[in-house]
Design goal:
CATH superfamily of one domain: NAD(P)-binding Rossmann-like Domain
Oligomer: single chain
Strand content: 15-25%
Order of helices and strands: EHEEEHHEEHEEHEEHEEHEEHHH
CATH architecture of one domain: 3-Layer(aba) Sandwich
CATH class of one domain: Alpha Beta
Shape: globular
Distance between the termini: 36 Å
Number of helices: 10
Structural class: alpha/beta
Strand order of the largest sheet: 3-2-1-4-5-7-11
Radius of gyration: 19 Å
Helix content: 25-40%
């Protein structure tokens, strides 16, 4: 089996590469990435790309790679969170949506059997009431979420025999060889370790579903050779587990209980956070029973604590460091390494 992973040198990609190599030792794994975050290693004793057969460098917006011979393409390349999406709205649309569509069309034309798109549960946006199913109304409120919906809709319209899976992932968390601390649980753990203080900027009531990066890799492993008769030729599915829908205040308390001496403060007078949603993962549970999430919230926290301690992590000002993706891009721009279209100069 030959698999191409685009955007593999970010937060999720290293974990996906390691998992696929372990589960499919005979597979040929290639990565394609423009290396914005290649230097953002977090305690990795060796480069994560060692699990690949080849690492290709380039911009997915200009990718001319011949896709013939690949069995699956995994599209992870994206401007990957709300602050980045808001700062680079046009680029977010171009990379997250337009490139995804052109890549899928090229894959279909080349005879690729499976295309996997990393979508997001953030498409539900403001969603009061019961957990959201795939058929429920969408309410994306950020450029990032809107680009994911635009991609899903365009992928559904591609006339092809290729099996397409859009994995609407819960909010990512957990340890990686290229860790991000601009994610809610990861941020809370970093605050606990460096400050013994977690400040919840909202009133703590918003709901978030979580999924560990290791479980994201399990979902991708399922999707890269999912047969069309298991969910349909085109499938959009929430990827996560029902028991990992949490209120933000509960996440803060869970971290504080794991890091002794940590205090939690909640801004009870804060305006209501516009992003709050619970998600129903029943469809994923029925379609992928052998690839269900295994990493509990406590284990995700433990893995983060242990990983950061191995790094001798003590930076209380980490929100201005290379562990924040927007800060990395801003530093690249300030030093003229990339332009305002996020292209290498």
């Amino acid at each position: 089996m030959r698999v191409l992973i685009t955007g593999n040198m970010g937060y999720v990609g290293p974990v996906v590469a390691r998992h696929l190599r372990a589960q499919r030792p005979e597979a040929t794994l290639h990565g394609f990435d423009n290396a914005y975050f290649a230097h953002c290693l977090t305690g990795a004793p060796v480069l994560p790309e060692r699990y690949l057969d080849e690492q290709i460098h380039g911009d997915v917006r200009d990718m001319s790679l011949d896709l013939r011979g690949y069995d699956a393409v995994v599209q992870l390349a994206a401007i990957s969170n709300d602050p980045m999406g808001n700062r680079f709205q046009d680029v977010t649309l171009d990379i997250n949506q337009n490139t995804t569509i052109s890549l899928a069309r090229a894959a279909a034309a080349a005879g690729v059997k499976n295309f996997v798109f990393a979508s997001s549960c953030s498409v539900y946006g403001i969603a009061d009431g019961p957990p959201r199913k795939e058929s429920d109304p969408l309410n994306p409120i950020t450029a990032y979420a809107k680009s994911k919906i635009g991609s899903e809709q365009a992928l559904a319209s591609i006339d092809t025999g290729m099996t397409i899976t859009c994995l609407r992932f819960a909010t990512a968390c957990g340890m990686s060889d290229r860790l991000r601390l601009d994610l809610v649980l990861n941020d809370f753990v970093a605050c606990a370790l460096t400050r013994r203080q977690i400040s919840v900027l909202s009133d703590g009531t918003p709901w978030r579903p979580l999924i560990d990066v290791a479980d994201m890799a399990r979902a991708i492993d399922w999707a890269i050779d999912r047969p069309a008769d298991n969910g349909g030729r085109f499938l959009t599915v929430n990827a996560g587990s029902d028991d990992r829908n949490y209120q933000v205040k509960d996440l803060a308390d869970a971290v504080a209980s794991r890091v002794p001496g940590t205090a939690v403060s909640i801004n009870t007078s804060a305006p209501v956070d516009s992003r709050s949603y619970k998600v129903d993962f029943g469809l994923y549970r029925s379609l992928a029973p052998r690839h269900q999430p295994r990493v509990s919230l406590d284990q995700s926290i433990t893995n983060l604590v242990d990983g950061l301690k191995r790094m001798n992590f003590k930076d209380a000002e980490f929100r201005s460091s290379d562990l924040i993706r927007l800060k990395v891009l801003q530093d690249h721009m300030e030093t003229a390494r990339i332009n305002d279209r996020l292209q290498w100069t």
